[in-house]
Amino acid sequence: METEKAIESNILLRPDLGTFKVLLGGIFGLVVVTGIGRFAFTPILPLMKRDLGMSNSVAGALASLNYLGYLIGAILFSSCPRLLRSRLIVGGALLASLATTTFMGATTSHLWWGLLRFGGGFASVTLFIVISAEVGGTLIQRGFAHWSGALYGGVGLGIALCGVIVPQLDKAGGWDGSWLGMGGIAALFAFAGVALVRNHELVRPSASESAGRPAELRSIWLPTVAYFLEGLGYVAPATFLVAIVAATPGLKGFAPYSWVAVGLAAIPSTIFWPHLARRIGNREALLAAFVLQAAGILVGIHADTLIEVVFTAVSFGGTFLGITALILTEGGLRMPNDKGRAAAFLTASFGVGQMLGPAIAGRLADLHQGFAVPLLLAALCVALGGVFIAVDRRYQTRKS
Asked: Do 63 and 183 share a domain, yes or no?
C-alpha cells in the first residue's frame, strides 16, 4: 500500500506532458458541450424573461426538449455504439453543439428555440460519451486513472464561466448578445481542445453491442429508480436557480454569480465524492450526497439572504456530478462484464427524469406564481431517491 501511494504521488508530481494535454483537451471539450452547451441556458434565462416576457412554462418546455435530445442520443448510442466510432458523426456533433448555442440568439421563434435546444441536447450526449470514452480510456491506458475525475471538472468550469461572463455579455448586447457571445467562447474552447488532442492517439469507444442479461439488469434496478428521481429533482434548480435568485428582492445583482458558485462547487466534486466513497462505501457516500442536495433545495424555497442562496448553490453544485459518478461506478461494479450497458441503462433513466422535470416545474411555477411548490417537489424526489439507496442491500459489502 505504501509503495502504491508513493508511485501515485510520484506520478502526480511529474505528469507526462502528452497525457496532460489529452486531459486538458477533454476538460475543454466538456466545457463546450455540457458546461456551455447544456447549462448556459440557466443564467441567460432571466434575461430572456426580462427582455421577451418568456413564461416559466415555455422555459421549462425548452429545457425539457434539450434533455429529450440528450435522452434520445443516450438510447441510440447505447443500442448502436458503433456510430460513435465515426469521425463524421463526432465532428458533426461538435459543429452542431456550437451552432445550437450561437443561433439561440438569432431568433425569437419558440419553434426554432425548441429545435435548437433539442439538437443541442443530442450533440451534447454524443460528445459527452465520446470524450468520456476516449479521454477517460486514454488516461486509464497510460496509468493515470486517478485523474479521470478531474476530466468532469470541465462541466463545473463551463458553468462557472457562464455565470461570470453572461452578465458582461448582457451589458454589451442583452439576451441575444449573451447567446452569441457564449457561442463564440465555446468555439474558442473547442478549437483549443481539438488542438491539444490532435496529435495524440486516443482510445476509441468500444463497438460492443452485446445485450446485458436480464439478471444483471435486475441487479441495478434500485439505483436506476434512485437515479431517475435524482434527474427529476435536480433539474428544477439546474434550470431555474438563477431566475429564482433574480426574482428575490435584494439579490437580483447576485443572481448570475449564484451560477458561478454552482460551477465552482462542481469542479472538485467528481474527485471528492469518489474519494469519500473509497473511505466509507458507495451507499454511505451516495446517501450523504442525496441528503445534502435535498437540504439545499429545501433551503432554496425561502432563501432570501445571501448565505442561504450560497448554501443552495454550493450544495447543488457540489453534489449533482458526484451523484452521477457514484451511481455509474456502482452500475459498473454490479455489471462488470457489461459496464457500458449499465451506464447506458442508468443514463437513460436519469434522462427520462430530467426531461420531465423542467416542464413540470415551469408549469407549476406559472400556476402557483412562484417556485415554492416545484422546489418542494424537487426536494421530495431527491429525498425519495435517497430512500431507494438506503434500502438497497447490495451496497452493504461493496466499496469502490
From this structure: yes
In 3D, which of 151, 188, 122 has the Cα closest to residue 20? 151
Domain that holds residue 41: 15-200
Residue at 209 is within a domain: no
Q: How confident is the model at residue 340 (pLDDT cuts 50, 70, 90)?
A: low
- Do 135 and 282 lie in a common domain? no
The rounded distance, in Å, linking the Cα atoms of 108 and 116 is 12
Rounded CA-CA distance 154/98 in Å is 16
Q: Which pTM does this prediction carry?
A: 0.86
Rounded to whole angstroms, how far apart are CA atoms 324 and 286?
10
- All three cell numbers of 251, joined, read 439579490
Q: Which three cell numbers stand for residue 49?
A: 424573461
End-to-end CA distance of the chain: 16
Same domain, 195 and 249: no
For residues 158 and 234, membership in a common domain is answered with no
Calpha distance 348→346 (Å, rounded) = 5
Q: Is the dihedral of CA 16, 17, 22, 25 positive or negative?
A: positive
What pLDDT is stored for residue 1 in this prediction? 45
- Note the pLDDT tens digit of each residue in 135-190: 888 887 888 777 878 888 999 999 999 999 999 999 999 999 999 999 999 999 99
Q: Do 134 and 267 reside in the same domain of the chain?
A: no
Cα-based angle 321, 325, 330 (whole degrees, multiple of 5): 145
My answer on whether 325 and 178 are in the same domain is no
- Residues in contact with 168: Cβ distance below 8 Å, sequence separation at least 6, in sequence order: none
307 with 389, same domain: the answer is yes
CA separation for the pair 106, 177 (Å, rounded): 9
Q: Provide the CATH number for the domain around residue 187.
A: 1.20.1250.20
